[in-house]
Structure formats: C-alpha cells, structure tokens
C-alpha cells in the first residue's frame, strides 16, 4: 500500500478504517481525539499520522504543515459552535430574551464540553486567517442576526449593532473561559450567575 495516498483501507488507532478519499477526515478526527487528550496541542504531525495508521508523509497530501491542520480543526470548531447555537434556538414566536439566553447557554456549553477545541479556536496557533474566514464569522453572525432582528422589532436600543454584538460575544466568551478554568464558581458569583449575568447585559441593550 502507498501510505501517501491511502489507496487501500487502513485501520486507525481507534479501530476504525478509512478508504481512499477519507484520509483527510481521518487525520482531522485523529487530531481532534489527540486534542482532547492534550489540550495544549503540543503533539506533532508525525504523531497524528502514526495514530491514524499512515506513514509520516501521508498528512502532507492534505495539510501543508501542522499549522494548516490546526487551522482546519479550528474552523470545524466554529462550524459546530454555530450549529450548536442555531439548534438551541426556541421555535417561532419565542421572545427575544428567551432566544438570547438559549443561544448564550449553548455557546458556553459548547466551550465547556470541548475545552481543547475551544481554546484552539481562539489561539494564535489557529492563525489570523481563521478569524478572517467566513466560517468563523458565521458563528458570530448568529448573535449578530438576533440583535439586528431585536432592533428592527423595537426590542433593543438603536445602536451600532456590531458594537452590541461585540459586548454580547465578550460576555459569553469570558464566561466560557472562566468556567473552563474553574473560576466561575457559585462561591464567587452566586448560584444563578450565568443567567443573571446574561440578563444584566440584555437589560442594558433594551430601550
């Protein structure tokens, strides 16, 4: 078998098999599994190849280097974050406050449940190009669209909507990081700190 092309099926470390055309996905899945084990992403591309069950040169058919693999992994994280926020939205007719709280909770939950991936998404190692990519901006766009709609319906103050979205993003990101680091504790911020913090900011946006 020519490992550089993955032209035949090969077992991965987890017992799964990939076929021709699936090597890129297998490498990303392997890297994500390693990221859960080592949130500092200090593993090498050679280690990813070994865990995926291919030669050390095989990844270079899909990724220029480790940085390129991490960048794609970060973008996958933003895709999933957007999906999580959209999935959390209440049905039609829900009040803006309920929608905002549901999306914000989903955002925080995503980070807490995927700490290594979440940290990578906002790291220097992911690269500036990741945050200029439409895929990462789409996650921010969920909050932006919700606030734009709130302004149109007269539920929020008429302010520059991107500034309002930046404030909301800063809050949920900060809470996510504090929670991941074990610092958003009830002893410090109270029992219902998440919802109360979110509601406090939203009240500042309301007319």
Written overview of the protein:
The chain is mainly alpha-helical and 207 residues long. It folds into two domains: 10-63, Orthogonal Bundle (Arc Repressor Mutant, subunit A); 75-205, Orthogonal Bundle (Tetracycline Repressor, domain 2). The protein has helices spanning 23-37, 45-52, 66-88, 96-113, 115-121, 128-132, 134-152, 161-180, 186-189, 193-205, and strands spanning 10-11, 17-18. The chain has a two-stranded antiparallel ribbon with strand order 1-2. A hairpin with a 5-residue loop joins strand 1 and strand 2 (17-18). The longest helix has 23 residues, at 66-88. The N and C termini lie far apart (66 Å). 29% of the residues are buried.
């Amino acid at each position: 078998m020519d490992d550089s092309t993955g032209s035949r099926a090969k077992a991965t470390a987890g017992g799964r098999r990939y076929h021709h055309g699936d090597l890129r996905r297998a490498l990303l899945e392997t890297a994500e599994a390693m990221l859960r084990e080592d949130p500092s992403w200090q593993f090498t591309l050679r280690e990813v190849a070994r865990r995926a069950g291919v030669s050390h040169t095989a990844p270079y058919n899909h990724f220029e280097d480790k940085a390129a693999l991490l960048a794609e992994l970060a973008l996958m994280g933003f895709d999933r974050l957007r999906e999580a926020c959209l999935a959390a939205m209440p049905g039609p007719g829900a009040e803006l406050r309920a929608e905002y709280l549901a999306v914000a909770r989903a955002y925080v939950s995503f980070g807490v449940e995927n700490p290594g991936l979440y940290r990578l998404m906002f790291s220097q190692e992911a690269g500036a190009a990741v945050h200029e990519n439409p895929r990462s901006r789409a996650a921010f766009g969920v909050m932006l669209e919700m606030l734009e709609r709130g302004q149109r319906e007269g539920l929020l103050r008429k302010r520059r909507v991107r500034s309002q979205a930046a404030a909301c993003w800063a809050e949920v990101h900060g809470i996510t990081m504090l929670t991941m680091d074990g610092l958003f504790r009830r002893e410090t911020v109270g029992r219902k700190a998440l919802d109360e913090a979110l509601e406090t900011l939203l009240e500042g946006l309301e007319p």
